[in-house]
């Protein structure tokens, strides 16, 4: 799912630049939060369908799933902030730069550790086939977002 948030970040940046170019306005934090909420809701609906979640599974699964996603997003945010701080600091030592680079390269492992923490919890809610299909469903959702973004970009007038 880390690819999902990476894509969301990139898509949001593209959307911001497209919207600014077309409407000559900036996106507010409220707009950003609304947009992220809509994406999360769409993701829930998609996973319900793809995993054939029962009514009894939905609430406990998404409570955990959203917590996991929030943890991963927070990790990504902290890593991006560190990267930006070090890149902006011309006086950063080689050791500081190396440590920041190591942190960035360790991001995938840290995301994987978070996901493995939740794997055991998901296994108590999902049946084995649903659990197996979860990652494929996440990739499929991300691909649909990419395809939607491509279609939208080609139909939106550029100035």
What features would you highlight for this structure?
86% helix, mainly alpha, 159 residues
List the helices and strands and how they pair.
Layout: H1 2-23, H2 29-51, H3 55-88, H4 94-123, H5 128-155
Helix pairs in contact: 1-5, 2-5, 3-4
Describe what this molecule looks like in 3D.
The structure is a single chain. The protein has 159 residues and is mainly α. The chain has one domain (2-155). It has 5 helices and no strands. Helix 2 (29-51) packs across helix 5 (128-155). The longest helix has 34 residues, at 55-88. The model is unreliable at 4-24 (pLDDT under 50).
What is the percentage of strand-forming residues?
Answer: under 5%
Number of E-state strands: 0
Note the total helix count.
Answer: 5
Low-confidence spans: 4-24
Provide the number of structural domains: 1
- Specify the oligomeric state: single chain
């Amino acid at each position: 799912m880390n690819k999902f948030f990476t894509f969301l970040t990139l898509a949001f940046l593209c959307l911001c630049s497209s919207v600014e170019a077309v409407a000559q306005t900036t996106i507010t934090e409220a707009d950003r939060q609304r947009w992220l909420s809509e994406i999360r809701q769409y993701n829930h609906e998609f996973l319900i369908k793809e995993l054939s979640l029962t009514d009894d599974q939905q609430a406990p699964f998404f409570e955990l799933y959203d917590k996991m996603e929030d943890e991963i997003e927070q990790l990504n945010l902290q890593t991006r902030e560190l990267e930006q701080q070090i890149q902006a600091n011309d006086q950063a030592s080689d050791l500081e730069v190396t440590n920041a680079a190591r942190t960035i390269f360790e991001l995938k492992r840290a995301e994987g550790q978070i996901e493995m923490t939740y794997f055991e919890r998901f296994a108590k809610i999902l049946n084995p086939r649903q659990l197996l299909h979860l990652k494929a469903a996440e990739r499929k959702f991300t691909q649909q977002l990419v395809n939607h973004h491509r279609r939208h970009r080609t139909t939106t007038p550029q100035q």
